[in-house]
């Protein structure tokens, strides 16, 4: 790990402006780090030539005093974002070889702000997973290892992103979060992940999983880096009907660390059975830290919390079953035609060969809950419960400004340990999913370690559009927690 | 209500018909993308990445499609829903790139309404509209270009359609035909659809069932994508007959999708659509509800032209045109537009009120102009005679310059040369002669040459009067004013 | 509600996913496991509750009726498994 790759994005930015190093040097250091970390399997495609080209442009801009917010910053882009001319697969065999003729709005925004792309980051297939064990490109390995040296999962679905940021091989990365896919992997790898309000980041050009939930967001070393990244990623996009046509705040400017008088809500329903004591302990410690920083701690109630996960596991598969219907072998991606097969045979063979087990399972569930006779009992009921969950939050935010919870019910676990039990896997997102259903901004901040020294995250949820207050609360928590451990380099 | 009945072996059967008309909304760009909608083009050239359902592509609605749907709804006296929503209709087909069609299932933009139709040889009927919703068209598969493959062209994929669903209110092929014609007429007046059925911009799904007169509804079949009024009628005739035969033979009607074969004028089951469908409709999460207010509806209403029913009533009541002629003149917007230009010019030229010249103008359009256009195989928009030329001709008749007979001759020359009638009259000296002196001189010559007949007439043989009229007209080369000839002849012979 | 093997086959076909016969039983129990778990939603009283339509208050924006896209046949066909004379070719469909 070179000194350059160990800097925060903010420090890289400032160093570039001060000419302490060039964008090319910075990028080359990262390219070397990426090449040295292939054991992590964090990338699906490496694009050093693109990163270097951006670095050259950045160096010229820096020399001319015309630097943009991210000039010279080498990033990793989750493979869910379509990138023009660079294979984009969403971690799926069905899109193997697919080369988009367009650039997703989020990645285009980052590139337009001067960033370079080191490559595409591995992920759970179609963002369906919490451990990065469902990718067609193989598992991503967490740079952190268990006490006995076991291989751990990096969380999911943005596991390539979390692993790459934690391993210091990218300055920062994009993630997407449908039910926790930014926050849970951030917590599993000791980094910071931020999911903005639904509609802040355009979904245009990002492979859809569950449209009413999908939100892009940054994954980075710390809160400030996330704020810098989000400022570039977000913004109104007329090509996305659900994009919010609102001015974009300067999130970094909101980081004062002053949270005096802010009210932090502790939802009593988030105390769930089977959660490790050290997570409960970290949670109360987090509340203490925020109180010590001048915030007021209030108990709040989110009565429908226990229904959030089942609600999510109806809505997300339902939308996914429809969103993934376009992968049919006609216009792009994999095509399998059995000998003498007709169109239907082609569809069935293509989709059977192209989708992995978890994706198939979710498509099946989604197809079932939307089918004639079951729609009302499942999908419609879930959308009504979703309304109740949203109303819970509306009421809670009358009493508090930010809500504090754990990010995940455990630290990173061993690969394979939950693969046979989908529901046990789904429970990883129990604390993240409610905010997703309500479209609220939320973030995970590394706040401590478990008995084995593995990072644990605390989760902060803000009210809709109140990213600035949320960022600042996260910043205060980060400063109070002072988490600075890094995985020991073994790769 | 018509009393159209199928005479079966076991008695009479009544046919029950409902139509789902897909009308292409007149827009430049597609419903959810910025690609063009123009007819006929290189395959896959009018396709955006959205229409091809590339990963991550998203729909954004074209406001003009919304406006046209609302205007159409208002024109059909329908309830307009200020809150509506787009749903996904999920099914797999090669020319359906998303794997779903974006449509409006649970909450359409337009609700119930009605239109009045006038079938030929039957009483007018009121046909209920169930709903109108906006949806995307699919692409096109071509099956006859390759022995092994079907070829998919997405140029139509995503084109905005209005699906106009009738209630099952029609009871005869003629009523259904009249419904489609009336609907097309209104859409063209409104300008929300060009109504070109042969280019596919209007096509009907024809739902047919039979039952004992007034009895329980039977099972229906749906014949997809019928693209002419004549074919709609043929489908109904064929289906009704077929269903009666099946039922009378003790069989059952299968609820199925069929297609029409225009070569044989029969329907047959559509193999590819045979599978049981479960469309798994749900709200499209890529779109938000479609919302507008009363002011928007009123603004849409304000842009509507006078519609055919209102126009027809006005022609009858204010212009004293016969109901039949009024119906003919208002059936197509182009006809009405021609007629109204003609009427205005005619009134202006003759310094009369429109009411005073309406009947003559209507008669001229329907008998003279339509007759001529029929002969030429031209539509009214291609008429070689402009409304102002027509008005000039009518004025020449009204001021006595031309007799009815002369007017017909001038009209024929106008068709041939395109010249103005005044010019023709002037150049060819076709003016009617009303000068009594000149006519009296001719009459004197005629009577002198036919002294014997004069004697017979005076002796009581009245019907010889016609003979003297004929002779006088002949002597004046047909240019004498017949009324003047009559008067003068009566005076001369009475003496 | 629990699904039987026939329902599993039917759902797989609706979703156009070929499910080998030996996968039907395992899939059946996987689905029933998940469905059994999500069915706890049935206990929630949702009478009078509107289903969520837009999670963050927002309204549908309308595009101008302008041709701003298309005419990109090459891009449209760039990734096609079987392009043919400007079309996408698929196994022959008999209507
Ligand atoms: Mg239909
Ligand atoms: Zn339709």
TrEMBL record, chain A:
Q: Which domain of life is it from?
A: Bacteria
What EC number(s) does the entry state? 6.3.5.7
Q: Which UniProt keywords apply?
A: ATP-binding, Ligase, Nucleotide-binding, Protein biosynthesis
Task: Please name the catalytic residues of this protein.
Answer: 78 (charge relay system), 157 (charge relay system), 181 (acyl-ester intermediate)
Does the entry feature the keyword Iron, yes or no? no
Q: Which Pfam families match?
A: Amidase (PF01425)
Which InterPro entries does this entry report, sorted A to Z?
Amidase, Amidase_CS, Amidase_dom, GatA
Record bears the keyword Cell division: no
The catalytic activity, as recorded, is: L-glutamyl-tRNA(Gln) + L-glutamine + ATP + H2O = L-glutaminyl-tRNA(Gln) + L-glutamate + ADP + phosphate + H(+)
Q: Which residues form the Amidase domain?
A: 25-470
- Specify the enzyme's EC class, one word: ligase
Q: Summarize the protein's role.
A: Allows the formation of correctly charged Gln-tRNA(Gln) through the transamidation of misacylated Glu-tRNA(Gln) in organisms which lack glutaminyl-tRNA synthetase. The reaction takes place in the presence of glutamine and ATP through an activated gamma-phospho-Glu-tRNA(Gln).
Write out the similarity annotation: Belongs to the amidase family. GatA subfamily.
Quaternary structure and interacting proteins, as annotated: Heterotrimer of A, B and C subunits.
Report the protein name in the record.
Glutamyl-tRNA(Gln) amidotransferase subunit A
| Source species of the chain | Pacificimonas pallii
Gene from which the chain derives: gatA
From TrEMBL, chain B:
Signal peptide span:
none
**UniProt keyword annotations, A-Z:** ATP-binding, Ligase, Nucleotide-binding, Protein biosynthesis
The broad enzyme category this protein falls into is ligase
Q: Which reaction does it catalyse?
A: L-glutamyl-tRNA(Gln) + L-glutamine + ATP + H2O = L-glutaminyl-tRNA(Gln) + L-glutamate + ADP + phosphate + H(+); L-aspartyl-tRNA(Asn) + L-glutamine + ATP + H2O = L-asparaginyl-tRNA(Asn) + L-glutamate + ADP + phosphate + 2 H(+)
PROSITE patterns, A to Z: GATB
Q: What does the record give as EC number?
A: 6.3.5.-
Start and end of every Asn/Gln amidotransferase domain?
A: 337-493
Q: Say what the protein does.
A: Allows the formation of correctly charged Asn-tRNA(Asn) or Gln-tRNA(Gln) through the transamidation of misacylated Asp-tRNA(Asn) or Glu-tRNA(Gln) in organisms which lack either or both of asparaginyl-tRNA or glutaminyl-tRNA synthetases. The reaction takes place in the presence of glutamine and ATP through an activated phospho-Asp-tRNA(Asn) or phospho-Glu-tRNA(Gln).
Q: Which PANTHER family match?
A: GLUTAMYL-TRNA GLN AMIDOTRANSFERASE SUBUNIT B MITOCHONDRIAL AND PROKARYOTIC PET112-RELATED, GLUTAMYL-TRNA(GLN) AMIDOTRANSFERASE SUBUNIT B, MITOCHONDRIAL
Subunit comment for this entry? Heterotrimer of A, B and C subunits.
Homology family: Belongs to the GatB/GatE family. GatB subfamily.
Q: Which HAMAP family does the record cross-reference, listed alphabetically?
A: GatB
Q: Which NCBIfam families match?
A: gatB, PRK05477.1-2, PRK05477.1-4, PRK05477.1-5
This one is known as Aspartyl/glutamyl-tRNA(Asn/Gln) amidotransferase subunit B
From TrEMBL, chain C:
EC class of this enzyme? ligase
Superkingdom as given in the UniProt entry: Bacteria
What EC number(s) has UniProt assigned to this enzyme?
Answer: 6.3.5.-
Name the catalysed reactions. Answer: L-glutamyl-tRNA(Gln) + L-glutamine + ATP + H2O = L-glutaminyl-tRNA(Gln) + L-glutamate + ADP + phosphate + H(+); L-aspartyl-tRNA(Asn) + L-glutamine + ATP + H2O = L-asparaginyl-tRNA(Asn) + L-glutamate + ADP + phosphate + 2 H(+)
Keyword Methyltransferase found: no
Keyword set, alphabetical order: ATP-binding, Ligase, Nucleotide-binding, Protein biosynthesis
User: Is Cytoplasm set as a keyword in this record?
Assistant: no
Family statement drawn from the similarity comment of this UniProt entry: Belongs to the GatC family.
> What does it do?
Allows the formation of correctly charged Asn-tRNA(Asn) or Gln-tRNA(Gln) through the transamidation of misacylated Asp-tRNA(Asn) or Glu-tRNA(Gln) in organisms which lack either or both of asparaginyl-tRNA or glutaminyl-tRNA synthetases. The reaction takes place in the presence of glutamine and ATP through an activated phospho-Asp-tRNA(Asn) or phospho-Glu-tRNA(Gln).
**Assembly and interactions?**
Heterotrimer of A, B and C subunits.
HAMAP family the record matches: GatC (MF_00122)
Name the PANTHER family on file.
GLUTAMYL-TRNA(GLN) AMIDOTRANSFERASE SUBUNIT C, MITOCHONDRIAL
Q: What is this protein called?
A: Aspartyl/glutamyl-tRNA(Asn/Gln) amidotransferase subunit C
Name the encoding gene, please. gatC
């Amino acid at each position: 790990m070179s000194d350059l790759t160990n800097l925060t994005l903010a420090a890289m930015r400032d160093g570039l402006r001060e000419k302490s190093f060039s964008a090319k040097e910075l990028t080359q250091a990262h390219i070397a780090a990426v090449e040295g970390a292939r054991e992590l399997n964090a990338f699906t495609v490496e694009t050093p030539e693109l990163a270097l080209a951006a670095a050259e442009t950045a160096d010229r801009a820096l020399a001319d005093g015309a630097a943009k917010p991210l000039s010279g910053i080498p990033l990793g882009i989750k493979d869910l974002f379509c990138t023009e001319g660079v294979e984009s697969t969403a971690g799926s065999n069905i899109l193997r070889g697919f080369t988009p003729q367009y650039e997703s709005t989020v990645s285009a925004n980052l590139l337009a702000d001067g960033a370079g792309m080191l490559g595409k980051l591995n992920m759970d297939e179609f963002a369906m997973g919490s451990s990065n064990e469902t990718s067609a490109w193989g598992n991503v390995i967490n740079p952190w290892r268990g006490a006995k040296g076991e291989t751990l999962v990096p969380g999911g679905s943005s596991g390539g992103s979390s692993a790459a940021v934690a391993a210091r091989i990218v300055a920062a990365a994009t993630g997407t979060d449908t039910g926790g896919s930014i926050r849970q992997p951030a917590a599993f790898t000791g980094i910071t992940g931020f999911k903005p309000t639904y509609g802040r980041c355009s979904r245009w050009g990002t492979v859809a999983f569950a449209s009413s939930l999908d939100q892009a967001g940054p994954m980075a070393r710390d809160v400030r880096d996330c704020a810098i990244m989000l400022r570039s990623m977000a913004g109104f996009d007329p090509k996305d009907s659900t994009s919010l046509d609102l001015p974009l705040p300067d999130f970094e400017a909101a980081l004062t660390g002053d949270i005096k008088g802010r009210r932090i809500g502790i939802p009593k329903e988030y105390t769930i059975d089977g959660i490790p004591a050290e997570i409960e302990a970290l949670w109360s410690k987090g509340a203490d830290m925020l109180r010590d920083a001048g915030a007021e701690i209030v108990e709040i109630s989110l009565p429908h919390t226990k229904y959030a996960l089942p609600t999510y596991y109806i809505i997300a598969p339902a939308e996914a079953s429809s969103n993934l219907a376009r992968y049919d072998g006609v216009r792009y991606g994999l095509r399998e035609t059995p000998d003498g097969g007709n169109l239907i045979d082609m569809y069935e063979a293509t989709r059977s060969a192209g989708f992995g087990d978890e994706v198939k399972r979710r498509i099946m569930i989604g197809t079932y809950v939307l089918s004639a006779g079951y729609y009302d009992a499942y999908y419609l009921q879930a959308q009504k419960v979703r309304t109740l969950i949203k109303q819970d939050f509306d009421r809670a935010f009358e009493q508090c400004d930010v809500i504090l919870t754990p990010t995940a019910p455990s630290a990173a676990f061993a690969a394979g340990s939950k693969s046979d039990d989908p529901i046990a896997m789904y429970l990883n997102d129990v604390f993240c999913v409610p905010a997703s259903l309500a479209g609220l901004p939320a973030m995970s901040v590394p706040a401590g370690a478990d008995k084995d020294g593995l990072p644990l995250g605390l989760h902060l949820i803000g009210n809709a559009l109140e990213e600035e207050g949320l960022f600042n609360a996260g910043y205060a928590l980060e400063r109070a927690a002072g988490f600075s451990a890094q995985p020991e380099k073994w790769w | 209500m018509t009393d159209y009945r199928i005479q079966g072996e076991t008695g009479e059967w009544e046919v029950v018909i409902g139509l789902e008309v897909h009308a292409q909304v007149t827009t430049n760009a597609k419903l959810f993308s910025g690609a063009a909608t123009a007819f006929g083009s290189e395959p896959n050239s009018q396709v955006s990445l959205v229409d091809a359902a590339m990963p991550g592509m998203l729909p954004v609605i074209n406001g003009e499609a919304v406006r046209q749907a609302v205007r159409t709804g208002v024109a059909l006296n329908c309830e307009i829903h200020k809150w509506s929503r787009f749903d996904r209709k999920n099914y797999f087909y090669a020319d359906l790139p998303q794997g779903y069609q974006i449509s409006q299932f649970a909450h359409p933009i337009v609700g119930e309404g009605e239109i009045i139709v006038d079938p030929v040889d039957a009483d007018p009927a009121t046909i209920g509209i169930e709903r109108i919703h906006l949806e995307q068209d699919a692409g096109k598969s071509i099956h006859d270009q390759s022995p092994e493959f079907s070829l998919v062209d997405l140029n139509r994929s995503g084109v905005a359609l209005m699906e106009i669903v009738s209630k099952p209110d029609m009871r005869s092929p003629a009523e259904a035909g009249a419904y489609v014609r009336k609907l097309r007429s209104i859409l063209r007046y409104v300008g929300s659809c060009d109504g070109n059925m042969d280019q596919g911009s209007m096509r009907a799904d024809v739902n047919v069932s039979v039952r004992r007169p007034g009895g329980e509804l039977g099972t229906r079949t749906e014949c997809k994508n019928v693209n002419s009024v004549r074919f709609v009628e043929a489908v109904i005739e064929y289906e009704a007959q077929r269903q009666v035969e099946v039922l009378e033979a003790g069989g059952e009607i299968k609820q199925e999708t069929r297609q029409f074969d225009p070569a044989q004028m029969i329907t047959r089951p559509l193999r590819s659509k045979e599978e049981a469908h479960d469309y798994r409709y749900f709200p499209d999460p890529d779109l938000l509800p479609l919302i507008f207010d009363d002011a928007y509806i009123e603004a849409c209403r304000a842009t509507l032209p006078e519609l055919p029913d209102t126009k027809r009533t006005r022609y009858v009541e204010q212009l004293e045109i016969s109901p039949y002629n009024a119906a003919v003149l208002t059936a197509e917007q182009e006809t009405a537009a021609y007629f109204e230009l003609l009427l205005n010019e005619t009134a202006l030229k003759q310094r009369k009120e429109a009411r005073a010249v309406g009947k003559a103008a209507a008669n001229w359009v329907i008998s003279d102009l339509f007759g001529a256009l029929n002969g030429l195989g031209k539509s009214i928009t291609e008429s070689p005679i402009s409304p102002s030329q027509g008005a000039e001709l009518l004025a020449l008749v009204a001021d006595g310059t031309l007799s009815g007979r002369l007017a017909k001759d001038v009209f024929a020359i106008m068709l041939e040369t395109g010249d103005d009638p005044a010019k023709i009259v002037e150049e060819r000296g076709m003016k009617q002669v009303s000068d009594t002196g000149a006519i009296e001189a001719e009459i004197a010559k005629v009577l002198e040459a036919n002294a014997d007949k004069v004697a017979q007439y005076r002796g009581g043989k009245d019907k010889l009067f016609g003979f003297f009229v004929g002779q006088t007209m002949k002597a004046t080369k047909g240019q004498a004013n017949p009324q003047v000839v009559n008067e003068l002849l009566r005076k001369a012979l009475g003496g | 509600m629990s699904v039987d093997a026939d329902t599993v086959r039917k759902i797989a076909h609706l979703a156009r996913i070929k499910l080998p016969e030996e996968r039907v039983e395992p899939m059946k129990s996987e689905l029933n496991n998940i469905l059994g778990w999500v069915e706890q939603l049935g206990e929630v009283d949702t009478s009078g509750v509107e289903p969520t339509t837009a999670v963050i208050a927002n309204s549908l924006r309308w595009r101008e009726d302008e041709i701003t896209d298309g005419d990109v046949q090459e891009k449209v066909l760039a990734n096609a498994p079987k392009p043919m004379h400007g079309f996408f070719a698929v196994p022959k469909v008999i209507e």
